[in-house]
Fold these 4 entries.
Entry 1:
Amino acid sequence: MPVAIITGASKGLGRALALGLAGKGWDLVLDARGADRLAETVALASAHGTRVTAVAGDVTDAAHRAELVTAARRLGGVDLLVHNASALGAEPLVRLAELPLEGLRRALEVNLVAALGLVQEALPPLRAAGAGAVLVVSSDAAAEAYPTWGGYGASKAGLDQLAAVLAEEEPGLRVWAVDPGDMATDLYAAAVPDDDGPRPEPEAVVPGFLRLLDERPASGRYGAAALLEGRR
């Protein structure tokens, strides 16, 4: 069975992706800081009959990243690395004039630096897989200028560029940055607590992500909405 590492898998899009991949027969190594909620995801994913390993910890910790890859090797290797873990930098979001620099550093460490660190750790088994893939979860805030989203958007724009360069440097891999669009997640609620407008559940965009794995299009940046509509 193919093996995927998914960060930020205790809730939201990370949990939805874990369940979607488990339903497709993938074995999983799942990460999150909250062990209890991560255990809930493991129980749900394991119900599909696949092997699921939980490794609770912080993706900014190099030892934790190494533990994730070691766990994947025990299951057979790394066929897919999904960097979904994200930090906002401030909760709720604030304008750049008020953004705590420590918050910006945290967003960059989680969203960008940890992503590269995990890629570096996983590159040997990804290359050995023969058809390895890296999928990073981007945001429309990486490409559009929304007030209060500057710090988070900057970290995701950096992540997009990291993915684009990785694709050039590792032509044997597929490297996709995917903008999932607005979703009803705890992250969005923390970012803009006064915005209670209706949004799709994360499960609704998972088929778009799975399409990438089924069709394996060229490395690049994709929008989940376009993938769901059959476009690229």
Note: The domain at 3-228 is CATH 3.40.50.720 (Rossmann fold).
Entry 2:
Amino acid sequence: MKKVKAFLDLTRAGHGIMLYVAILIGAMIAGSMPEVDKYFFAFLTALFLEMGTFALNDYFDYEVDKKNRRMDRPLVRGDISPKAALLTYAILSPLGILSSVMVNRTCFYIALFNLVVATLYDVKLKEIKVIGNFYIAFIMAIPFIFGAVAVSENIPAIIYFFALLAFLSGAGREIIKDVMDFEGDKIRKTKSFPHYLGIKKSNVLASLLIMAAVVLSFIPFFFNVDSRYYHNPLFLLLLAISDAIFIYSIFLVAKNDEGARKYTLIAMFMALIAFLLPSITFIK
């Protein structure tokens, strides 16, 4: 069981749940009930690529994570060897690409592009974290579009809107993580936002990005971008819960509390639920 937990920690399998929901949202909005086989392989594509590239990330971050005393990382704890992490990437990433072939050609191109950029990020681009932050935010946004493309050639405008919200909140969260990892990043001379702006201004920037996502998130409720969300009380209720957690995380950022990173993740998951349920039911 210890080895299983270490593998799940290495590959961030828990993030796979968020990928599952984001892809389902894209598929449900674009094509109502999606074809089971297409959705299944679309999810496997995202899951395998996410697990493989996270393993590669920890392989290259090993020394930095030791400096930061990241005991949540199985390589630092000694539960998994760096060689095993590299092997995980070598096995799961090709499986992800193979799964995308089973969906359609567009999904294959998206998957291949993401794998190449993710690998470049893990190997080199993360040293330029200003770029890396927005790449990670992009990775949080693309599953909505990927899910839609898997089942339809036409992508509703609301999909791009949800992707934008994921991008903004994701970028804010990444900058928060940079502040937390600032000391360890000095080892590899990583150029992050705290390096250029300082910790205080970086926290302000992260808070502004998250707050922008919070403010914009109410647009589908007040404006008829998509009838499923327009004046939908269920959407408003779930969204309010998510945004309240985001605002609380901003409060923690101001206090340099490491809990901000955890609460932003919880808020993102709640936002996904807020996006998902109205796409399934038309409760008004």
Note: Residues 33 and 159 are 16 Å apart (CA to CA).
Entry 3:
Amino acid sequence: MIISFENVSKTYDGKDIALVGASFAVPQGAFACVIGPSGGGKSTVLKIIAGITDASSGVVVKPKLVSMVFQTGALMPWLTVMENIAFGLHGKGLSMSRIRSTALKYFKMLDLQGLEGKLPRDLSGGQRGRVGIARALAVNPHVLLLDEPFSALDPQMTDELHKDIIKIWKETGKTIVMVSHSIEEAVALSTMVILVKDYAVKKVFDIDLPRPRHEHALPFMREVRQIKREFFK
């Protein structure tokens, strides 16, 4: 397992509870979606994996090299698209030619042609999301973390980025852990769904459906109903 939590808890100032006794494991190469009500603990799980915060107790196993894509993309506003993608490569002892070739690889992978000299303010929400994903992948992380990356986008752009992220997952073999507010989105994308509510991991669902997945197919709807029953308990 590339990520595992064993009885992991998190409190702030010793009293504000953020996570209690969480246990789950993510296999290498999996696409895991973390879902749950707002304020229930799912963001805390992602922050612990990212190393943004430490667990207060329990055992966390995770790789050292983890990249996180935030909801807004969190791009450097003064840098161009290509400079943003290359940002994390500086300071790694790479030659400028290697930095350029690596950035170009992921620039092309995310279909950003024609945007290399643009600043973030000149991009659409979907384009900013693609740049954020390209920047995260450029450092070749063991795990890619996505924090509700599609929640602010319109349905058409969301559908396009869903196809992009599945393509990237298949091509790179990366382990992906994504926080989502949508059960349907989680079932459409993932190989496993981790339900976090009331500051605890309530259940882990294995999603074994053929791709492409169709929301109106009976097996898809059965998975959604099963998760919703637990979600709304």
Note: The CA atoms of residues 58 and 226 lie 29 Å apart.
Entry 4:
Amino acid sequence: MSEEKKLSEKFLEVLQHEGVVSIVSWGIETHVANTWNSYLVVTDDERILIPAYGFRKTEKNVDVNNKVKLTLGSKDVLGNNDYQGTGFLVNGTAKYISSGDEYDFMKKKFSFLTRVLEITVENATQML
């Protein structure tokens, strides 16, 4: 029996449309960093890889507390009850990758990155 997917088809559809992603971390201090839907890469095992150039406060928080929350959405994807737009809240754990195959893969896609922020998804809830 296969494990139930944490990231729905609707979530993956949202990533096909541009929108802002907010990444909330807390450890040393509560911090919100932003990126774009088009920068998120979902792996076969449903981890989310995000190219990181800045994200220094996020990294300092993750060093203390690896829990993170992400919000993302798109007005171009139909939501619940035919609502024009949908969004997701993702809870997960984070770590930074600075070498290896996934780092190299991401560096080819996003030449500006200095590290990769890896999110292991615990759950993703559709909000709209």
Note: The chain is about 20% helix and 45% strand.
